[in-house]
Amino acid sequence: MNNVFLLLGSNLGDRKLFLQQAIRHIEYDIAPIIKISSVYETQSWGKSDEPDYLNLVIELQTDLSAQTILEKILAIEDVMGRKRAEKWGSRIIDIDILYYNAAIIDEPGLQIPHPELHKRRFTLEPLAEIAPDLIHPVLHKNSLQLKKALKDNLIVKKL
After folding, report:
1. Which of 107, 98, 102 is CA-nearest to residue 127?
2. What is the pTM of this model?
């Protein structure tokens, strides 16, 4: 079994509903959820003039490959109506693969661990909540150490 951590985010419409719908799709199409973080409200990252996000992190265990998980995530985003108009633009749903076991994958369209993971408070707050001792396979620090070293001072608050 492969341990997979996903980050979910939404900053348009009924954000809580979209997160719940994405979770249902993930459980149906990919695997049951082992752990789920609290929901965090986060200032928009990258484009600060966008609406605030709701974010959470989930852990799954699955036999699927990382590439297959990516394909299924993209299909879920598409079914839910995600539009990819601009980088860091607002979105109904965003699902990112943070970790796939301790794998280091660098392929076109798929980078694991997520290349921005260690720079983002909105990722590390929920990740550290459910997996504080999880080691980043490139940086060799756990989630709490990465969170403590953050320079990102965007407001991230647990709901």
Report:
1. 98
2. 0.94
